[in-house]
Amino acid sequence: MDLIARLRAGLPGEAILTDPDITGSYANDMASFCEAGTPAVVVLPRTVEQVQHIMRTATELRVPVVPQGARTGLSGAANASDGCLVLSLVKMDRIIEINPVDRIAVVEPGVINAVLSRAVNEHGLYYPPDPSSWEQCSIGGNIGTASGGLCCVKYGVTAEYVLGLDVVLADGRLLTTGRRTAKGVAGYDLTRLFVGSEGSLGIVVRAVLALKPEPPGQLALAAEFPSTAAACEAVCEIMARGHAPALLELMDRTSIRAVNAMAQMGLPDSTEALLLAAFDTPEPAADLAAVGALCTAAGATEVVPAETAAESDLLLQARRLTLTALEQVKSATMIDDVCVPRSRLAEMLDGTAAIAEKYGLTIGVCAHAGDGNTHPTVCFDAADPDESRRARASFDDIMALGLQLGGTITGEHGVGVLKKEWLARELGPVGLELQRGIKDVFDPLGILNPGKLF
Amino acid sequence: MDLIARLRAGLPGEAILTDPDITGSYANDMASFCEAGTPAVVVLPRTVEQVQHIMRTATELRVPVVPQGARTGLSGAANASDGCLVLSLVKMDRIIEINPVDRIAVVEPGVINAVLSRAVNEHGLYYPPDPSSWEQCSIGGNIGTASGGLCCVKYGVTAEYVLGLDVVLADGRLLTTGRRTAKGVAGYDLTRLFVGSEGSLGIVVRAVLALKPEPPGQLALAAEFPSTAAACEAVCEIMARGHAPALLELMDRTSIRAVNAMAQMGLPDSTEALLLAAFDTPEPAADLAAVGALCTAAGATEVVPAETAAESDLLLQARRLTLTALEQVKSATMIDDVCVPRSRLAEMLDGTAAIAEKYGLTIGVCAHAGDGNTHPTVCFDAADPDESRRARASFDDIMALGLQLGGTITGEHGVGVLKKEWLARELGPVGLELQRGIKDVFDPLGILNPGKLF
Question: Which CATH fold would you assign to the domain A3-88?
Answer without folding.
Answer: 3.30.43
